[in-house]
Structure formats: structure tokens, C-alpha cells
């Protein structure tokens, strides 16, 4: 089992990055490849991985944190959820928000995630509600109707995403510019991670 890789990002696409580890290029499918885009051809990064083996392929799925890795492994234990669907869930929501939604049996939130219908959401809650110890919710409270005021600086999804992006080294000026270019395309029910992904794509291109 390959638990993590450490190397330089030398290429990325919308679904994966290629990590150069001592001259070997590993294709790693990620929830948000743009998270690693800023490090392309620069410093080494650590990607926590899940090594998935099936009859016709050997695949690596990669994550920025142990929390994502743990939740991914829990999700693929649920009947009917394969690695691609689990990756889509993590692309649409942070581990904190997904875990909080499961604990609160928030079907409305879960069905907003890619590839998740009502029956699948119910199955996730039934199978995982008592199996998520060790995956922090970070004190997040998910509102059942997902009513978020994007322009309220105290509870804005964008403000949460902005703080996370600042921790990656982006400046207020860079982030404010990205927000001006993307705000019309952001809807109130989008998760912090989805907003971050949009911003990172603009920041990398810009």
C-alpha cells in the first residue's frame, strides 16, 4: 500500500497531477488538482494517497490532508460508492462539512454533492454515522437549508475560502481580483471547497 508520496508536481490536468518522485512520474487523481498547481516545478509537496487496485487498472488517488484520505477510505466502504464518486464528494465538500452533514443526517447537503442522490445519501448516513471517529468536524454547523449569504463578511462561503487560500500564500489583492472575476458564477449552495477550486483555477491562470 502506498500511503503517501513526496515530490515535485510537474504536470496537472483537471482530474489529476503528475508527481515526480526521484525521476518516476506518478499520476495521482485528486479532488482538487489546482490545490497543488502553485507548487508546479517548485518545492516538493506531500500527497497522501490511496492505492486502488482492480482487475483492469492500478490507480492512485491523492489528498492534501490526512482528513481527506481517511474520509475517502470510509466513503468507498459504502455500498455503491466507488473511488470516482468518493473523489467527487471530496471535490464538492471539505471533510469537515461532509462529516458534519453525516452526523446531522443532512440529506439536503449530501445530495448537493456530485453523484449523490437521495438513496445514496441515506446509505452514507446509515453506514458511516457511527464510524467517523477521528475525522474532525472542526466545529462546523451545517444548516439544513444551506442558506449562506455570500456577501456577508461574517458568514460568507467566500470568506472561509479566502482564509484557506491565504494560508497557501496568496495575497488579499490576488484573492480579491479572483473573487471579482468569479462572484457572478458562485451560487449560495456551493461549498467552501468548490469555491476554492474555482478561485485556484483563476489564480493559476492569472
UniProtKB/TrEMBL annotation:
Residues 73-92, 108-127 form the Helix-hairpin-helix DNA-binding motif class domain. Residues 155-206 are annotated as: Domain III. One of its GO terms (biological process) is DNA recombination. The keyword DNA damage applies. It is found in: Cytoplasm. It comes from the Bacteria. GO terms for molecular function: ATP binding; four-way junction DNA binding; four-way junction helicase activity. Residues 1-64 are annotated as: Domain I. GO terms for cellular component: cytoplasm; Holliday junction helicase complex; Holliday junction resolvase complex. Coiled coil: none annotated. Signal peptide: none annotated. InterPro entries: DNA_helicase_Holl-junc_RuvA_I, Hlx-hairpin-Hlx_DNA-bd_motif, NA-bd_OB-fold, RuvA, RuvA_2-like, RuvA_C, RuvA_C_sf. Residues 65-142 are annotated as: Domain II. The keyword Cytoplasm applies. Keywords: ATP-binding, Cytoplasm, DNA damage, DNA recombination, DNA repair, DNA-binding, Helicase, Hydrolase, Nucleotide-binding. SUPFAM superfamilies: DNA helicase RuvA subunit, C-terminal domain, Nucleic acid-binding proteins, RuvA domain 2-like. Belongs to the RuvA family. Has three domains with a flexible linker between the domains II and III and assumes an 'L' shape. Domain III is highly mobile and contacts RuvB. The RuvA-RuvB-RuvC complex processes Holliday junction (HJ) DNA during genetic recombination and DNA repair, while the RuvA-RuvB complex plays an important role in the rescue of blocked DNA replication forks via replication fork reversal (RFR). RuvA specifically binds to HJ cruciform DNA, conferring on it an open structure. The RuvB hexamer acts as an ATP-dependent pump, pulling dsDNA into and through the RuvAB complex. HJ branch migration allows RuvC to scan DNA until it finds its consensus sequence, where it cleaves and resolves the cruciform DNA. Homotetramer. Forms an RuvA(8)-RuvB(12)-Holliday junction (HJ) complex. HJ DNA is sandwiched between 2 RuvA tetramers; dsDNA enters through RuvA and exits via RuvB. An RuvB hexamer assembles on each DNA strand where it exits the tetramer. Each RuvB hexamer is contacted by two RuvA subunits (via domain III) on 2 adjacent RuvB subunits; this complex drives branch migration. In the full resolvosome a probable DNA-RuvA(4)-RuvB(12)-RuvC(2) complex forms which resolves the HJ. This is Holliday junction branch migration complex subunit RuvA. It comes from Paenibacillus yonginensis. The lineage of its organism: Bacteria, Bacillati, Bacillota, Bacilli, Bacillales. The gene is ruvA.
